[in-house]
What does this fold into?
Amino acid sequence: MPLFRGNFYKVSFFISEVVKTMIPDKPVSSMPNGLYFGYPGKLESWMRTGDLKGFVVYFTCDYLGINSTLPNFDADYPFFTYNSEFYILVTDEEASDLMATAQEMMKEVSSAHPERFEVVKTVLRRNLHKVRSAKAR
It folds into this structure.
């Protein structure tokens, strides 16, 4: 993927080891149970080296109702800040929990329920709280 800059937040959960960053100052290769974070304005470039397995959740600040200019943003979302580590490994237990949450979001998005995106928003907030706890350890 060529170098690009998105205008959205992203949480990627890698199950396989087939992606590596192409940004010279922060080279990273994916590992099983790896979480990658992207945020508006972040420069990214990836190279796939095989079949990619995992989940990716994209969202805007308007959708989730977050504001990066508020004082508590860095504490609430430490993985979406400029100086944060953009890739962390989680335990098998955390990975299992994140996988279940991702599957729950996929099920809700696919449902015909009129409030499905509100439900997904709640599940996403819960998931980000779990990620914050994993990053803090």
Summary: Residues 64 and 124 are 8 Å apart (CA to CA). The longest strand covers residues 9-14. The mean pLDDT is 83. The helical segments are 61-64, 73-76, 92-110, 116-136.
